[in-house]
Amino acid sequence: MSGIYIHIPFCKQACHYCDFHFSTSMKKKDEMVLALAKEITVRKNEFENEIVETIYFGGGTPSVLSNEEINFLISEVYKNYNVVENPEITLEANPDDLSAERIFELSKSPINRLSIGIQSFYEEDLKMMNRAHNSAEAIKCLQEATKYFDNISLDLIYGIPGLTDEMWKKNIETALSFGIPHISSYALTVEPKTALSKLIQTGKIAEPQDEVASNHFMILVDMLQKNGFIHYELSNFGKENYFSKNNSAYWLGKKYIGIGPSAHSYDGVKRGWNIANNSLYLKAIQNNELPIETEVLTISDRYNEYIMTGLRTIWGVSLDRIENEFGAEYLKYLLEQSQKFLNDDLLFIENNILKPTPKGKFLTDGIASDLFYLNLED
């Protein structure tokens, strides 16, 4: 099974923390939709022998597209690819785009999963992050969305300066009150060249503290697990049968095609990424060119990616797979590098699977980087 990701590179306004590729100008939106449709068609041979299980509209803010534009792009996928009978079709959306009428219309479309960018239910947090919606819109859209959609995910951000533990608990409680079956939650991260970075440098916003984020993470894990959520990936929690099929496919190394500027693709052997420039992307597509760069992954690249994705998920890192797929030298290296984390109760081995302990989960990315193999000759 494979997936198709469609990147919609437009937003109404720029969130202070975001470093994804997007434009706040909608002038080229119509042109972009046609170009996306063309790329979908042009790349169909890449999935000639594949069955598409997921279609995911990410961004940017995909909900800036009209329902007609969304349905048009979905129809182009169906025209050109073999699609499973009941695919997971996700639309990332912001609360300010989800009026009661819009939600009802979407419920009549092929979209069957909403991923809603709530981030916080506190007005001060939303203003600090420069979100386009307010707290009332966040509440209202969830009240409406849950009437028509069963499969809903919402995003929450923790580690926000000024967000106390009690406020964070209240955010989680509010999310849970809607019966949402999936929550994605991320620490506020200061990326270079973002507005947030500049605001911190000029002293207008306090810098996020790792200790605060770590406490928020532990509160999150505890509260969601007590409410029947499975912590299946570092930043993702789902009720049984509500894991994101799209995201799970990434972590499990399945093939996917990324459509649109800045979108990434993976075919099991090589990775590709489209140019992160709307004008250059449009020009290339209009000239019947694919604006994509590719790299063939070395054995070390594939090992490192497996370590990173495996440790972030409930599936862990299979030591048998390491030995069978990468060889005894890689297994020996992994066991040697893991020893200090095993001794410190940050990792454990069970049924020949290497996983982080509850204490090690928040540190997963740093641990994984220490397990990377950088010096092997491929």
Automatic annotation (TrEMBL):
<comment type="similarity">
    <text>Belongs to the anaerobic coproporphyrinogen-III oxidase family. HemW subfamily.</text>
</comment>
<dbReference type="InterPro" id="IPR006638">
    <property type="entry name" value="Elp3/MiaA/NifB-like_rSAM"/>
</dbReference>
<dbReference type="GO" id="GO:0004109">
    <property type="term" value="F:coproporphyrinogen oxidase activity"/>
</dbReference>
<dbReference type="InterPro" id="IPR058240">
    <property type="entry name" value="rSAM_sf"/>
</dbReference>
<protein>
    <recommendedName>
        <fullName>Heme chaperone HemW</fullName>
    </recommendedName>
</protein>
<dbReference type="InterPro" id="IPR010723">
    <property type="entry name" value="HemN_C"/>
</dbReference>
<dbReference type="Pfam" id="PF04055">
    <property type="entry name" value="Radical_SAM"/>
</dbReference>
<dbReference type="GO" id="GO:0006779">
    <property type="term" value="P:porphyrin-containing compound biosynthetic process"/>
</dbReference>
<dbReference type="Pfam" id="PF06969">
    <property type="entry name" value="HemN_C"/>
</dbReference>
<keyword id="KW-0963">Cytoplasm</keyword>
<dbReference type="InterPro" id="IPR034505">
    <property type="entry name" value="Coproporphyrinogen-III_oxidase"/>
</dbReference>
<comment type="function">
    <text>Probably acts as a heme chaperone, transferring heme to an unknown acceptor. Binds one molecule of heme per monomer, possibly covalently. Binds 1 [4Fe-4S] cluster. The cluster is coordinated with 3 cysteines and an exchangeable S-adenosyl-L-methionine.</text>
</comment>
<feature type="domain" description="Radical SAM core">
    <location>
        <begin position="1"/>
        <end position="230"/>
    </location>
</feature>
<dbReference type="GO" id="GO:0005737">
    <property type="term" value="C:cytoplasm"/>
</dbReference>
<dbReference type="InterPro" id="IPR023404">
    <property type="entry name" value="rSAM_horseshoe"/>
</dbReference>
<dbReference type="InterPro" id="IPR004559">
    <property type="entry name" value="HemW-like"/>
</dbReference>
<dbReference type="GO" id="GO:0051539">
    <property type="term" value="F:4 iron, 4 sulfur cluster binding"/>
</dbReference>
<keyword id="KW-0408">Iron</keyword>
<keyword id="KW-0349">Heme</keyword>
<keyword id="KW-0949">S-adenosyl-L-methionine</keyword>
<keyword id="KW-0411">Iron-sulfur</keyword>
<dbReference type="InterPro" id="IPR007197">
    <property type="entry name" value="rSAM"/>
</dbReference>
<keyword id="KW-0479">Metal-binding</keyword>
<keyword id="KW-0004">4Fe-4S</keyword>
<dbReference type="GO" id="GO:0046872">
    <property type="term" value="F:metal ion binding"/>
</dbReference>
<keyword id="KW-0143">Chaperone</keyword>
